[in-house]
Amino acid sequence: MTPHAPGLPARVEDPPAAPRIAMLGGTFDPVHLGHLRSAVELREALALDRVHMIPASVPPLRGEPRVSPETRLTLLRLGIGDTPGLVADPRELHREGPSWSADTLASLREEFGAEARLVMALGHDAFLRLAEWRDPERLFALAHLVVVDRPDFEAPLPAELDALIAGREVGDADTLMASPAGGLLRLSLPSRMAISATEVRRRLAEGRSVRYLLPEAVERHLLDHGLYRD
Ligand code: ATP
């Protein structure tokens, strides 16, 4: 350590900034540009180090995905390519049983520490069902929630959800990121895209084009392997 001059106060080093990490969970059946563009814009809006895109092995609140978790992960990796700050994170594929988001957040919290700014990002359609999730209060103990607008899903909030989020909403990213967890922010991202995996699957089943709805590497892989063809 360098000694400081007598009479001058010791130089106080800035503490290292807490990591800023988001989880964007989903079925990704398959990943499309709505997911990827939202992840990039979310990273910019919150100055995040990384957005972990985490495919659910067994999504709790919906029917069985059309293709295996491993294939959805492969498509996600192809979709992300070398995009800075986006990560295809396989951690839910290594767990047995339903993919509870609170367990995933707990494992991120353990990895990145108590001071990390941890965000669970989700689209408005997924947010509308939040009160039905397992142990939703625990989600707020572990992370902030950031709700991303989707142009094709704009319904008002059910009463139980209103009660769950009471007192948590903040108005901007700086306020949210001043603490490690517990807040709620709604974001309207610049390139809101009305793309859904449902529509992508429907088009593929009908042999119609999906060009420009998903990255070309994803399109090529699923056409080459005849995925979602019925
Ligand atoms: P499906 O049509 O099969 O229900 P999806 O397109 O909604 O699928 P998911 O994998 O269920 O995709 O979504 C993962 C997360 O990404 C969810 O939080 C969802 O709200 C969000 N999301 C999906 N599509 C978009 C989009 N176009 N814009 C913003 N967020 C999106």
TrEMBL record:
This is Probable nicotinate-nucleotide adenylyltransferase. Catalyzes the reversible adenylation of nicotinate mononucleotide (NaMN) to nicotinic acid adenine dinucleotide (NaAD). It holds the Pfam family CTP_transf_like. The gene is nadD. InterPro entries: Cyt_trans-like, NadD/NMNAT, Rossmann-like_a/b/a_fold. One of its GO terms (biological process) is NAD+ biosynthetic process. GO terms for molecular function: ATP binding; nicotinate-nucleotide adenylyltransferase activity. Its EC number is 2.7.7.18. Belongs to the NadD family. Residues 23-203 form the Cytidyltransferase-like domain. Gene3D superfamilies: HUPs. Keywords: ATP-binding, NAD, Nucleotide-binding, Nucleotidyltransferase, Pyridine nucleotide biosynthesis, Transferase.
